[in-house]
Structures
1.
Amino acid sequence: MDELKKIDPFQIYGFWKTLAISIFMVIVMLSLVRILPDQLTPVIDLVCAGALYGMTLSKRNRGGNCILIPYAIILSMVLNAFLCIIADIADWWKISGVSIPDELVSSSDLYLPALSYLPIAFLTILFIYLKRDRLSLCKTCRLSYADEINRNKIEHIFRYESHLQMKYLLCIFGFLSVLVWCYYLFFYVNININERDHYVFLWIVILGLVADEVYFAVRYYNLYLDLKVSGDIINESEISDNDSKTYLRFYVICGNNVYVNPEKVDPSSKYGKVIDTPFFTHREVSGIALSDVKRIISSQTGREGELRFFYGRKFGSHDRAVMRYFYFLDPDENGALPTLQVSGEWMDYERIKHIYSTDPGQLAPLSVIDTTRLSTIILTYKKYDERGYRRNKLHSYEPSFNLIDVRNSSLDFQDDKWIQISMLNADIPFFAFKRFWRRLLGQSSNIRS
């Protein structure tokens, strides 16, 4: 089970790769604008933004990597495209009182993309940095990719390093913005673009961005070496082990009680122990039939019950998966909670919810992940319909749930639909506009019209 707590080196590589691709697309965009006709600038910006989205933000290529940097870069490219269009229209119509320099008009032969894009990128990244922990993007990521980023130290690494990446890019874009604008205001001659102008407005910008990319490549290689020495990296034998593994995690439930081991040893916990389900095993296969799963949990508990699939997620670069199941038991004939073969105790779920709300460090990390998903889906379903509108018009209404609700529910906990609705619903300011913007950007949404 220790493999679940170790960091796959491909996670660190993928994290740097996401940054590298984002910076590379900025370089490609600025280079293409100088090579292709200036009139195509808005198209080039949008095409590069779309390409970057496909390589980093699309569900197929996410893989649990932090996407704050590509999100900010894509947003800056889209904003730059719209501002170019506005500047071109204003210049073309010769709006009274508006004088736009040729260097900011993409239809002009003297157009210099660095003058407009660098300040826009700086302001966009600054905005994302200031709102970083409040973005619905981050909340959705933590829920959707919990198995990838919340099992081990990689969550803290991603959090710290993504903020550090933004700080460095803020410094680079801020410095380059000041540099190109000072050169433009004090040294640039508005006749034609010479070699020195090309050097300042293009090559210095490219060198600055490449330097940032190289710095983080060295930084993450050293980070990999440090984690390897500390034993937090999956070792060579585990990496070369191509055998499939499926981890089975069961929540055994009776009424509103769940069976737990309250003294499970966990050196990574601040208490040295955590509350967790004692039913956690694995098999050396890529998938297990439901009948075999039922046989495993029946054998472990010594009781016949109702098996219900919760949800499952793959993790790492190999064929590994953690599958969660509910196993519902009925009380004994005398109404008492059943006695199980495995060491542990029945705990009222109200107590679990209280611990989760006040001191989640007492719970195992996977228990926190699963409780977050379970509560988010059920409470969102009770509160909103599939369009994201409140079922109860009384805004003070806040639903609750228990394990009896879970047993009686027919919800598909594998589906992310209700998680997306929890992040985008009628209680969110500018709900209609945000839903329209998400669809415009091609982001997946399960919210029905």
Note: The longest strand covers residues 245-254.
2.
Amino acid sequence: MILNETSKKTLVFITSCLLLAIITFFVEYSATTNFLATLSFTLLVLMMVFNFYLNDNDYFSPLTIFSLMYVGYALGGYYYANSGGDFGRFIEFTSIPQDKVVDLFQYALIYAFFSYLSFGLGYVIFKQKIAFIHRHRSGGFWPFFGQYYLLLVVPFLLIGVVYWYWIALVTAGGLVNMLLYFQAFTHLVSDAGVTTLPYHFYHAGIYIWLLGLVVTGKKVGSTFILLSLLGMVIIMSQGRITVAITFIISQLFFIALIDVRNRKKILFYFAVLMGFAFFVYFLRLLSNGLFIGAEVDLVGKGFLKEMIGRGNVADLQQLVLIFHTFTLDKLMLGATYLDWLRNTVGQFFGFEPSSVGLMIKSLYVPDTSGAPVPGAIGEAYANFGVAAVAMMFFIGAAFAGLYRFVMKKGSLFLLLIYAVFLAKFVFIYPKVDSTMMVNFLWGVMPFVVAMLGFYLVFLFLAPLMKTQYVKI
């Protein structure tokens, strides 16, 4: 018997629910903290309902991309259920009574459930299934760009890779040492007194190259893939795993959004890339241990403790800290949603960086540790308390509206910018907060500035070439 798509989806859904139910039963049976696994199960089922049945089979939509990182809350519920009272390193910095921590963990999962429900409803109510169609007139900028884009790509890539090699020499004595101690890159650069800003030439060059290939209808070949992966290595050598992975993910999203026929293949590449990210994170822990001369336990629960207990996924312990800190009389009332602007423009006027995580760090966390990250729903609670559930509805609606606008517009230039937004903001947003907008801006602005410069050159030359121009 051959099953149709709906039957296949239902079979996968039922099978997944049964497997999760069995796992949940055994976790609850041996749990040191009750109900966390059960609450995690309900959250996962809710997320599957939205993504399997209310998402138009669009697994590159903001709803699905947001959901990928949001799964961390459910994973945390299963982990903390059997953690034996070890509720994460940030909780250890506080004096919150353990029984209150348990109550707040349960509350956090309930809050995560209703926040996702609200976000999902906001998205599905305002979504619209649209296939991207590149709309442009014959003549004008795009033929000009397709003919000459390599004149910008080649020097950009050369500047970036040469500078990367020079940085390796002055900071670590060579590429091998820099890659070996990549976790300590920030300290090495600080000690050498150098900047990594010229790295952006390389990544802007890759984006321009990808856009040029699509505009001219050329195949994404092995040369482009290898040099794009080198761009990932350049970022990863700074110890910035997430930024490096999302550099490649943004390109995969761009190709997937252009043509639905690419999507199954892109999903496979995406899964491989995420597996690679976990492997590199494992290497980063080893690199850190090697640099400071300490042993690192990464076997069994040791790895889960590093991933979940140390806040490297969307994390329940961060919500506990937020519930404990931001009481009704201490809510931020939307102020933190401007922190991304303060952290970009404000630094030129002497303003110190600000975020919910930094506020919590100043209260509980010693200087020897980094700041916790509140996640999208944690930041929303810090601003609006329980009304944050309604805020997530508007965020879901905004994501749906933006996606619909970009797909309708039919601009490849705008679509690539959106793909970077999807990878560097929407994907990371559940784990961090709105300050990830800075991550998006640094990811896209060098490319945008270069493209606008290219467009100005075209406007100057267009009268000489006796051709009409069109908007990009």
Note: The chain has a mean pLDDT of 88.
3.
Amino acid sequence: MNIEIRPQNKTERFFRKFHNKLEDILFSIVQKVPEPLIPDFVMNWVESYIDKRTRKLKEDIIRQKWQQIHLENAAGKIHGKQDKKKAP
């Protein structure tokens, strides 16, 4: 497993936070508007966006599980090497 730690770009972080806040505001507005008043194209967009986000979150969960397994294996190997050094 190859993990690279990079410093975060401040502008990238700002736009990511801005995008997330904008999403939250948009969904809160859509939730408060009665469904009959929402145009079809907006409902289709929201549905496709939710599907895309759901897929992304499922992928992230799987990726995190694999990372956890790799880290647990690495920790097990480290503990195994330490046990071998203490044994004699």
Note: The helical segments are 10-32, 40-86.
